[in-house]
C-alpha cells in the first residue's frame, strides 16, 4: 500500500523499491549486508551499459544470494524456487563454459611450455627485453582468471553439497523447495569431473 513505485514492476523499479524501503522493511527480513547485493545489481542492470561475461557471472551469483536469503521467509507460492533454479542453471552453464575454455588454454600453455623448454636459450634483444614486463602482466591476469574460475567451481560444489545434505538429513528444516536430489547429485558429479580435468591439465 505504501510502496515507492506501484506494480507492475520492471527489474529497475524493483531494485529502486528495495533501496528505498530497505531499512524500513527488508532489513527485518534478510541480512542487512545484502543491501550491497542490491546496490551491485542496480549499478549493473539499471545503467543500460553492456556487461562482459565476468560481470554476468557476478550478477547471477549476487542474484542467487538475494533469492536464497528471501527463501528463509517464504517460497512465495513456488515462484522463488523456480526463479532460483533458472538463475542457478544460467550460472552453472556459464561456469561449465568457462571451465571448458580454461582446460583448453591450460593444455595449450602446457604444450607451449614444453616447446620453450626444448628451445635453446639465446641472448635477448632489446625489443624482447621491452616485451617481457607486459608478458608477465598478461600471465598474472591469466592466473587471476583461472583462480576466479576455480573459486566459482568451489562455490557451486558447496551449493550442491548443501542441497544434498539438507535432503539426506531429516533433522534439517528447509522452508523453500530446492532442486531435486538427483539433479544436485548429477551436478556435483559433473563438477568433480571438471575439477579432475583441470587438475590433469595443470599437471600436464
TrEMBL record:
What is the official name of this protein in its record?
SWT1 protein
Gene name on record? Swt1
**GO CC terms:** nucleus
For this protein's source organism, the top of the classification is:
Eukaryota, Metazoa, Chordata, Craniata, Vertebrata
Q: Looking at the record's lineage, which domain of life comes first?
A: Eukaryota
Give start-end ranges for the coiled-coil region(s): none
UniProt cross-references to InterPro entries, sorted A to Z: SWT1_Regulator (IPR052626)
Question: Residue span of the signal peptide, if any?
Answer: none
Amino acid at each position: 500500500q505504501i510502496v515507492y513505485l506501484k506494480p507492475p514492476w520492471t527489474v529497475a523499479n524493483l531494485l529502486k523499491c528495495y533501496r528505498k524501503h530497505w531499512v524500513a522493511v527488508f532489513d527485518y527480513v534478510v541480512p542487512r549486508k545484502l543491501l550491497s547485493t542490491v546496490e551491485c545489481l542496480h549499478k549493473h542492470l539499471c545503467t543500460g551499459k553492456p556487461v562482459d561475461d565476468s560481470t554476468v557471472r557476478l550478477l547471477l551469483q549476487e542474484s542467487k544470494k538475494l533469492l536464497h536469503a528471501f527463501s528463509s521467509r517464504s517460497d512465495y507460492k513456488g515462484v522463488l524456487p523456480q526463479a532460483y533454479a533458472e538463475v542457478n542453471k544460467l550460472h552453472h552453464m556459464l561456469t561449465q563454459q568457462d571451465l571448458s575454455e580454461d582446460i583448453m588454454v591450460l593444455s595449450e600453455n602446457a604444450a607451449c611450455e614444453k616447446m620453450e623448454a626444448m628451445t635453446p636459450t639465446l641472448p635477448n634483444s632489446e625489443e624482447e627485453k621491452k616485451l617481457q614486463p607486459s608478458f608477465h602482466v598478461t600471465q598474472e591476469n591469466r592466473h587471476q582468471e583461472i583462480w576466479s574460475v576455480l573459486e566459482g567451481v568451489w562455490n557451486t560444489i558447496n551449493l550442491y553439497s548443501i542441497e544434498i545434505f539438507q535432503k539426506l538429513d531429516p533433522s534439517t528444516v528447509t522452508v523453500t523447495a530446492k532442486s531435486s536430489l538427483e539433479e544436485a547429485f548429477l551436478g556435483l558429479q559433473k563438477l568433480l569431473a571438471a575439477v579432475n580435468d583441470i587438475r590433469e591439465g595443470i599437471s600436464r
